[in-house]
Amino acid sequence: MDDVKSNDSLILYIQNLFHDSADLIVRKITWKDGDGIICFFSTMTESSEVNKQIEILRLRSIAELPNWAGTATSSVEAFSVPKLVNSVTNGFVAIFFPATNLLMTITIPSFEVRSTTEPTNEFVIRGPHEGFVESIDKNISLIRKHLPIPDLVRKDILIGTDTNTKVTYVYIESIADKNVVNEVKTRLKNIDRSKIYSIGQIEDYLEDSVWSPFPQFLNTERPDRAVANLLEGKIVIFTDQSPSALIAPVTFFSFYESPDDFNGRVIVGSFFRMLRLFSFLIAVFLPAFYIAVVGFHSEILPFDLSRKVKLAVEFIPYRPIIEALIVELFIEIIREATIRLPAPIGPTIGIVGGLVIGDAIVNAGLVSNLMVVVVAMTAISSFVVPSVEMNTTIRIIRFPFMLAATFFGFFGIAILALILFIHLLNRSSLNQPYLSPVVPFDPSRFKNIFFRLPYYKNHKQQQTFKHGGGKRKKGDRN
Amino acid sequence: MKKILLVSIACSLLLAGCWDERLYKDITIVPLMGYDGEPGKWTGYFTHAVVANPDSISFSTVEGSGVSIEEARLDANRKTSESLDPTQVLVVLLSTKAVKTDLLETFDIAYRMPRTRLSSRFVVVEGDLAPFMEKTEKMGKEVPDYYDETLNTAIFASIIPDEDIQLAVRLLLDEGIDLQLPYVKMSETTGTPEVAGVALFSDKVFSGHTLDTKESTIIQILKKKPGDETMFTFEWEKEGKKYPVTVGLVKYNKKWNIKDSKINAAYKMKVQVNEFAYNHLDEEKKRKELEGFLSKELTNDFNEVIKKLQEAKSDPVGFGRTVRAFHPHLWKKGKWQDTFSELDINVKVDVEITRTGIIN
Amino acid sequence: MNFNISRGQFFLLLFIVQSGSSFFSFPSPFINAAGRDAWLIFLVAGAFHYVMLLFYEQNYKHFKIGQIVGWLYKGYWLFVSIVYLAYVDYTLAVWGFPKTPQFIVIAVLVSVSLYANLSRAETVINLSVLLIPLILLFLVFLQFAWKDLVWTNLFPVGESTSVEWTKGLLKAQLAFIGIELYLFFRKHVDKKQKIKGRPLFVYQLVWFLFFFFSVVIILLYFTPKGLERIPEPLLFLLKAQEVTFVERLDLFFLYIWTVWTIVTVTIISFAALYVHRLHSTKHDKRDTIIWHILLVLLPMLFLSKQSMEQLNDLIIYVYLVFGLLVPVTVIITNRRKRK
Fold first, then answer.
1. pTM listed for this prediction
2. C96 contacts chain B (CB < 8 A)
3. B182-202 confidence digits (pLDDT tens)
4. Residue from C248, C255, C289 whose CB has the most chain B CBs within 10 Å, to mutate
C-alpha cells in the first residue's frame, strides 16, 4: 500500500512541477518489477504510438534482454528531476521507475513542421526548390542529404536560462578553420541572457561590430546555399524553431553571390554577378550624384539633357535634398506597408501608392519627375542583391551620401566613398577580413568578385588581415 | 564624449550650409552668345533659356556692353531674372570686327574660369551681329539648336573644321598652323544664317579673307581632317553634252616633299562615284578618262586654294608644323606666315575610282 | 608594429605614393624646364630611377635608423604631407570650391587619413586598392585626346640646352618623391617572394610608362607656349575632352586625384607613425591624433599661389636630401660599422 501511496504523491508532485498543465499526461503503468509512472505532453507526442512502443519495451523487459530499454527510440538513465523536466518539455515520453530509480525516455515526437517549401525571399530560377523549416532536425537532415560525409559535424549549445533555446552549429571538420570554430563556440558560450528566442538576437551577440551597417553574417533559408558555404569552410548556425541559418565568416562579396550563379551557365552567371555589383553602385550613388549635379555641378550636363533637367527642376519649391527625402520616405513607406498587407490587397496598394500618388506628387510640383525616376531606379537597384540584410544596408547607407552631396557635391561623395571603403576594410566577420580579395590584396582572386569561374573551385576563407593567411600570432590587432 | 563631438561637428556643418552650392533652378542656361566690338568697347548678346511654364522652354536674347566680355555679361545679367550662366554655351558668334583682335586676350576668362565649357564653338559672322541672334521663321527651331545643328552638318560634310574653343586656342598658340573659323552669312534667299565657308586667320587675327564652301572643303582635305562625307561635283563634257559627276572621298593619303622654299604635296585619293549619268564605268578606258579629268580639275582647285591662302598669309593646313619639326632652316627664316606666303607650293592630286555604286 | 605584406601590395603602395600628388603637379614644371626634349630627358631620369631602385634593393638591409634620423624623417614626411595637402587644397579651391572655407576642406581630407591611421595597419596598406580601377579609368579617358594629338610636336629632337637638361633632370625628381618608403617597408615584404630582378624591373617599367605616357601626351597635346600658362595640364586636357554623356570630365578626375592624394598622405602619415612607433610605443593614439592636427593646421599657412610655387620648388631639394643623401650616408655608415 505504501508503494501505491508514494506513487500517487509522486504523480501529484510531477503535476505540480508542470503547474497542472492541461495537456500533461501523468499515469501509472504496470511494469515487470513494480509500477512505473509515465509522463508526457499529449500535444507533443503521438499518443497511439506511445502504446505500441511501451508494449514493445514491456515485452523486451519480460524477455529479460540485457539492456532491454536501449532501442532506436528509447534510452535509460539514472533518474533526476531536471532530467525528467527536460525530456518532457522537449517532447519525449518519460517513464520513471521508482523501484529501480531509473528514467526511461522514448522519442515519439509529433511536432507540426511545415513542408520544406522554397523560401519566399530567396527565389532562384534553377536549382533545388527547398528551404529550411522551423525544425532543427529537419534542417540538419536537409544538409546531410546534400553532404553524406562523416566530416559534417553538428554541435549543440543550450542558451538562455528561461527559454532553453537550442543553438546548433554545423561545419565540415576537414575544411573549416579550427580557430574560427572555437571562436564561434566561445562567443556562443559567452551569451549571458535569460531570454533568447530568435536567430537575430544570436546574431547580435556573434557579430564583430554590431554598430556597422554591414551585416557580417549571411542569412539564408536555402539548404543549397548553406551547403555551398559549408564546403568553403564556413560555419552554419541554427536556432531551433527558426528557418534561417546564419553563415559566417563571410565576405562582402558573398552577399552578391546567388546559387543561381552556379546553376546557370558561366557567361550568364558572370554577367548577372557584374550586374548585381553595378546595381550596388547605382543604389548607393545615384541619388547623391543627382543631388550633386543639380546643386553644384550643373555644367557637367550636356546641353540637350540640361534643358530637360532645367524644365524638371525649375518650379520645384524645395532644395534637392528635401525633394529626395520626400520621395525616399514615400517609397520606404510603401515598401514597409506592402510587407504587412495581406496578399490579396498588397498589389493594389502598390499600384495606388506607386503610380497614382507618384504621378500626383509630380503633377502637384512637390517633386521633379527626374527625382522620381532617380529614386525609383535606386530602389529597384537595391532589391537586386540576393540578400535581404544587405539590401536594407544599402538603402540606409545612401542617406549619408545624399547629405554629403548636399554639402560638398562630388567632393563629398568622393570623400565619403573613401571613408566607406576604409570602414569596410576595417570590418571583420568572425575575425576574418570582410573585404577579402581586396584585403589582403590578392590579385589572383580578384576576378572571382566579378566573374563566376567555369568550375566550382572551393576556396577557403581568408583568415587574417595579413598577407599570406597563415597562423595568427599573439598581439595582432584584429 | 567622442559621439557628442562627432554629432556637434555634423550639426555645425548643417548650420554652416553649402558654400559653393549653385542650385540649378536659380541659374539660367546660355547656349548662344555673340560678341561685337573692339578692345575697351564690347557688346555682348546672350540667348538664354526662359521657362515660363513647366512644359516648355523658350529662348530670348539680352544685350549688354562693357570694357570686357565679362563686363558685358554682368551688364546683361542685370536685365534678366536668373543669373546668366555661361557654362552651357554651344556657339559663340563673333563679328568680323571682333576677330580683328587677338581671341586669346578677348576670351581670357573662358580659359581661366574652371566652369566654362571648352567644347563650344567659335563662329565668325558677316556684318552686323544682332540679326544673327534673332529667331526667324524658317529656322524651324530655337536659335541655339539651329546653329548647333547647322554647324554639325557642315562638319559632317567637311565644309568647316571640327574645332571647339579649346582647339582654337591651341591653334592660335601654335606658330606652325593658323586658325580657320566657320564663316556664316545671311542667306540672300531665305534670310536665315547659312554656313558660307571659313574665315582665315593670319597669326592671331582675322586676315580679312574668307573661302567659300568648296574651297574650305579642300582645306579640310589638305589638312587630312575631313568630315564623314566629303564630296565634289564637276561637269564633264563629252560628245558636246555636259554630264555632272559627283564623287565622294573614300580614302586618301598625303605626301609632302619639302625642300628649301619649295613644297611638293601629293594627294592620292580613292573615290567612289555617286552620280554620273554617262555610265559605262565598267570599261577601263572610260574610268581612266574620268580619273584623268578629276585629277586635273582637283589639282587646279587645290592649287588655287593654296594661292588664296598665301595671299591671306594664313596656313590653316599646318605646313608649318612639319617645317618646324623637320626643316629648321626654313623655319628660322622669319615669321612663318611671311615665309609661307612666298613659298613655292605645288599640289598634285591623283584620283582613283574604286567604287562605282550599285550600277555601272 | 609588425606587419607582413606581399610583393604586389608593396609595389602598389610605392606606386601610389610616388604618383599620388605628383601626377598632376609634375608635368608642367618638368616640361617647362626641359623644353621640347622633355621626353628624352625623362628617359634618362627613368634610367636613374632604376639605378636608385637597384641601389635600394641591394642595401635596404643596411638601412637601420636611430632616433635622430627617425625624427629627421618624421619632419621630412610632415613637410611632404603639408605640401601635398596645401597643393590639393589650393587646386580644389581653384577648380571646384572657391567659396568653401579652406580649413573645412583640409579638415575633411585629413579626417580620412586620421580614420585610416587609427585602424589596423593592413587597412592603410590596402587602401590603395581602391585606386586601381580609378587609375585605369584615368588612362582610358586620356585616350579620348588621341585625335587631338599632334605628332610633330615631338620634333625637332636635341634642341634642349645643357641648362634645360640639368633643370629638367632636377624637376623630374618630383616623380621620385616617395621612393624612400622602399627602404622602410622593404623588410616587411614576404621573404618567400622574389623581388630582385624581374619584379623590380616590372615595377620600374610600370612607373616609367605611367609618367612617360603623361609627359608624352601633354607634349603632343599642348604647344610649349600654351603649356606655360597651364599649371595642371592633365586636368585641362581632360576638361577639353568632349564625351557624349557628360561634360567637364576634369571634375570627376579632380576628385579622383583628390582621393589619390589623400591616400598618399595617409600612407606617408602611416610611414611617419611607423617610424615613430619604432622608438616610442606609449601614447599610440594620442600621437596619431597630434600628427593629424598638425596636418590640418600647418597647410593653412601655405595656401596662396606664391607659397604653393615656392613649396613645389623646395620639395625637390628636400627630397634629394632625404631620398638620396641621408639613405646613402646611413647605409655607408652602417656598412662600415659592420666591417
1. 0.87
2. yes
3. 999 998 888 889 999 999 998
4. C248
